[in-house]
Amino acid sequence: MATVPRPGSRSTKMLYLKKYFTEGLIQFTILLSLIGVRVDVDTYLSNQLPPLREIILGPSSAYTQTQFHNLRNTLDGYGIHPKSVDLDHFFTTRRLLNQVRQLDRLSVPSTELSAWLVHRDSETVVSASSQSSASIALDNGAGLEDVDDPDATPAMRGGSGAPESTYNLNTADSSLGAVAPEGTQEQGSRDGNDDLTKEDIDLIDILWRQDIDLGAGREVFNYSNRQKESEEEKPSPPESKDTDEEQESWRNGVNLQEAQPVDGETGESIPEQLPGLGSQTSLSLQECLRLLEATFPFGEESEFPAPVVAPEIAASTDEVPSTSQAVPLAPQLPPAEPQLDLEQQWQDIMAIMELQAMEVNNTNSSSVSGTSGTPETNAEGSFGPATRPTPINQDVSLHQASLPSCSQDFPPIFGPQLDSVSVAPRTATPRLSSSNSTNVNSTFGATNLTGIFLPPHINSSSSNNITSTPILPDPFSTLLEESMLDEISLLDLAMEEGFSQAQASQLEDELDSDSGLSLDSSHSPASPSSSETSCSSAASSSSTSATFSEEGAVGYSTDSEVATVETEEGAVGGYQPEYSKLCRMSYQDPSQFHGLPQLDSIGHNHTYNLPLSSEFAEHPELPISSVKKTVRDKSSSKFQPSQELLDKHASRDERRARSMKIPFSNEKIINLPVEEFNELLAKHHLSEGQLALIRDIRRRGKNKMAAQNCRKRKLDTIINLEQGVHDLRRDKARLLKEKMEFIRSIRQMKQKMQSLYQEVFTQLRDEEGRPYPPSEYSLQYSADGSVLIMPRSVTAEQSRKPEKKQKDKKK
DNA sequence: CAAACTTGTCATTCA
DNA sequence: AGTGAATGACAAGTT
């Protein structure tokens, strides 16, 4: 923030900044969309279970989703940096954008449009009042899924008419555009993410908060209110200063939304932030509508409503101030579910995503390739753009979080099962609105959903053999109850918790911690290690505690340099601190370390323990930091002018020793072993003052080295800890992924079991040839591997007394 | 000019 | 008891 030029008052500056930044984002997003970068809102949102989507994207997932991509895309592709916002550049971008649009409108992917539609949504609300189609779409609650819907398309097109702005983005274009492969989008986001540093995130966060301060209330988010406002405001173009501010504020909201997933700084739990985001979003939407309307006259209103949720869900949404209908999805989760679980879930998801990102990063470019979502990576990337190994991190992680991760991990779990099972009829669209409906639970297929997304108790209950549904008692649970059901239940429980809505907090937490650690780790490890390795042979970032112990050895090791010193100084203990070596090396061949940022930073002094007095007394011409010494000399005028040159390079103790006419060098005083030191003192007839000074010099000198070692040790410890955290995170992500896979496979097995069970059951006939009603009988595995058909009453009995297994009935 | 960092020093503790 | 190392705290200098 400090680097950002701010004309006028702080708030004004911020507004400018926001304005440019957000505008740039919008422009770039559009541009990216035109180019073909896919903002695949449809796929993710429509296919994903509402809760998950909600969790990942937040209450206003529809908006947020788009926002994220927009931000990333914008930053990625064109590097509009919040800090270096250039007005000319901005307008240039606009022109370019126009040109691009003109070149190929048809190429605009529908998905992309959806992203814009999200913004448009608010716009739609504003302008939609005049456009019936848009309003209808909203009312109908057409989900994002509807974007592709042929019916929806016309509505979208309808809005394309507004030629107000130079940016004439046709809705039709978006709808007609082919969806670019995910890889494209990822690539694009990846490219641009480099610019999103921690500072950027911080900036975004600040802007967001500022918006809140500016007065963006939750009420803004109320859809109806928003719409009204938008309608009212619509007549007045965003030209007025007030409007600009508002736009800025909404932009902030956008920024915030986009950045939020990445931002770990706040440390707030996502659930908490969500409301804030929502409020922010609402404001931003309002502004966005105006801005978009002015700039992009396309009319895809229909898409915005995408998140339409079932009424009951919406009702539950009230809690979430945020707003959009999308929010309602969250309610699906049982209210009783503790916040901690949500956080945990978020963490798990994030970890998985990170893992995927890491894995995909190298191998699969088409899927979330850039996702090196590792927390650390993110942090590194965000904080240390220059040194960060994987620039994409933030984008990637975010990207995954919002989309790929979901599609990859979850669809496999749910999609197949749902299809195969009775749930199959449910398509993505219905699922969105009714995912929490009872139907799902009733059927076995529901198990899948329930297992993962529904509260644990559902599954656990199933283990008890007593099924709530009379029609189709859960035979499967009965079968499995003794063997694996418990495990599954546990897993499910864990999974459910892991996937429940509130992972936002976890996400933030993870990001935050990541940012903190990874940030440092990314830089510190690299830089320190480089400097150390090259110069002082100190422990590198990767060095372990063992390295520390080695330091001492290094310090005392007799290098050629040390030997030189010894020859010069006489018989010295050979104690040469590593830092002194470092300094000397740098002096000898400064170019050697040129380009090592770390060394550059070390620039000042860094002679550490180097016996300057002796060294420089003999080689006064050495280019030591004369400036620094000069400063010191100014303060101390007790030395002879003739000695100034020497004093310039001498430490205080050196000067003191000289002033006291100590007959030997400070280096000897400090580094000689006690015995030799005492001998040295004995050889010379020294006054009390001289002896006291010598002892102080020795004490201080040793303490100085000790302090240096201590600090170095501390630093190394921190680095090692960071590395450990990184490793642990990676392991965690890997384990979580494995867990997911296991759960998935278990569910598939369940699925198969269920189908087999049903198949067998349907073919069973009693002595009279009558089928056994599934509601009254269940199949049970006996200890010897045989399968028994038992009355459910008996099964329930067994469940209560798992110890006693009855092997009766018919076989 | 202030904040952040670096470095040296002192005081203290421990081995 | 003396010595050295380790370390927290502080101050001064640098960036």
From TrEMBL:
Give Gene Ontology CC terms: endoplasmic reticulum membrane; nucleus
Domain BZIP: residue ranges: 693-756
GO MF annotations for this entry?
Answer: DNA-binding transcription factor activity, RNA polymerase II-specific; lipid binding; RNA polymerase II cis-regulatory region sequence-specific DNA binding
Assigned protein family: Belongs to the bZIP family. CNC subfamily.
Q: What is this protein called?
A: Endoplasmic reticulum membrane sensor NFE2L1
One Pfam match: bZIP_Maf
Q: Where is the composition biased (Low complexity)?
A: 363-374, 514-550
PROSITE patterns assigned to the protein according to its UniProt record, in alphabetical order:
BZIP, BZIP_BASIC
InterPro entries per the record? bZIP (IPR004827), bZIP_Maf (IPR004826), NFE2-like (IPR047167), TF_DNA-bd_sf (IPR008917)
Per its UniProt entry, which superkingdom is the organism in? Eukaryota
Q: Which GO terms describe its biological process?
A: cholesterol metabolic process
